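Action item from last meeting closed. Structure (162 res):
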């Protein structure tokens, strides 16, 4: 399963839509890094039941987690203030999930989620991969993850935790 690098609403959103508390790049970055280290604060209750950072350097860390009943190991690279990439080392998926923070042509801060994934042991572009891609593209996939991340960022800011 592969994801085109499209710029549609399922992939990116303005960080600061009208009527919402304004977030800085630093606040969003801090929250994205927090989410990468422990997604339990951001996912629906019970979806992630375990998450441990087991290795760390200045430019990456490794986490082991149980998400949606699957044990996974991810190598997570950080490009500070810009991009976090989750490389799927073990688990049902192989490939990378990217969270990217950038300014559009007008200078407005944007957040974009996309992936390049396959399913281990399944035929490329087979029915299982197509179903998985449909799920990522749905309202419960990228768009949900992106909007819920920004919502949680605003909640943590209001609580004084950012």
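Sequence:
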């Amino acid at each position: 399963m592969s994801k085109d690098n499209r710029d549609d609403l399922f992939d990116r959103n303005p960080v600061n839509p009208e009527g919402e508390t304004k977030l800085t790049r630093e606040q969003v970055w801090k929250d994205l890094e927090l989410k990468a280290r422990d997604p339990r604060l951001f996912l629906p209750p019970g979806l992630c039941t375990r998450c441990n950072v087991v290795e760390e350097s200045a430019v990456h860390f490794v986490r082991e987690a149980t998400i949606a009943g699957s044990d996974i190991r991810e190598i997570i690279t950080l490009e500070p203030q810009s991009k976090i990439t989750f490389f799927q080392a073990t688990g049902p998926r192989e490939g990378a999930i990217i969270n990217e923070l950038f300014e559009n042509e007008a200078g407005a801060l944007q957040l974009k989620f996309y992936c390049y994934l396959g399913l281990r042991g399944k035929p490329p572009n087979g029915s299982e991969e197509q179903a998985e891609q449909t799920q990522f593209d749905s309202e419960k996939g990228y768009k949900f993850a992106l909007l819920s991340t920004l919502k949680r960022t605003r909640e943590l800011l209001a609580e004084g935790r950012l």
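Note appended to the action item: Confidence is low (pLDDT under 50) at residues 1-11.
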